[in-house]
TrEMBL record:
InterPro entries: Trimer_LpxA-like_sf. It comes from Acidobacterium capsulatum (strain ATCC 51196 / DSM 11244 / BCRC 80197 / JCM 7670 / NBRC 15755 / NCIMB 13165 / 161). Gene3D superfamilies: Hexapeptide repeat proteins. This is Uncharacterized protein. SUPFAM superfamilies: Trimeric LpxA-like enzymes.
């Protein structure tokens, strides 16, 4: 469990405000827009800015061989043009997964950038996305970089959970992490029952 007496590290006030504004903007957009195509567009545009430093270029030139690597990069930032591991799983509920797929892609791509190692930003970003992906997201949850989940929509995290780097949450069926629980680095957590033999918290 976390120690409430230890002060939370903070960035500069300017950075704090910018981080919060970006998170609030994304939270508002994903709250207002549930349609997968709109969410995919939002994710694509934000990934372009994060990874390429500019907005999408618009119409691509597919005729020049020299442009193909850039075309591949630009197209692959769009969630509409990627397939995720979950989509190859027979248990997947495609109707439930469709609106969260762009957000799962956003989570995975964010975690592959230097931004993911900035914990004061990463915790906020993943909490925000988790509210739109997971079945439940409690208050004060800390999710470190590299955390994976099977589908996402069957994960429930209660208050003050800590999920350490590279943990795996196997939510092929409903998976609940109790209040204040810490899931250790690289742990594999599965639901209780006959298929839950890999369950490991620390």
């Amino acid at each position: 469990m976390t120690n409430p007496e230890v002060a939370e590290p903070r960035p500069t006030r300017e950075a704090d405000e910018v981080f919060d504004r970006w998170i609030a903007f994304l939270d508002d957009e994903f709250t207002r827009h549930k349609k997968p195509s709109i969410r995919a567009e939002l994710v694509r545009d934000n990934l372009h800015h994060i990874l390429l430093g500019r907005a999408p270029a618009g119409r691509l030139n597919f005729t020049l061989v020299s442009e193909l690597p850039y075309n591949v990069m630009e197209l692959a930032l769009d969630p509409n043009n990627v397939t995720l591991a979950a989509e190859y799983e027979p248990e997947l509920d495609r109707e439930r997964f469709a609106p969260v797929k762009p957000l799962v892609w956003f989570w995975q791509m964010f975690d592959r950038t230097p931004l993911a190692l900035n914990h004061c930003l990463g915790f906020r970003f993943r909490r925000m996305l988790g509210r739109h992906i997971f079945a439940e997201m409690g208050s004060g949850v800390k999710i470190y970089h590299g955390v994976e989940f099977t589908f996402g929509y069957q994960v429930a995290l209660e208050d003050e959970c800590v999920i350490r780097p590279y943990a795996v949450l196997e939510d092929r069926t409903a998976l609940r992490i109790p209040k204040g629980m810490m899931v250790g680095r690289g742990a594999v957590v599965t639901p209780p029952g006959p298929s839950g033999t890999e369950r490991s918290w620390v």
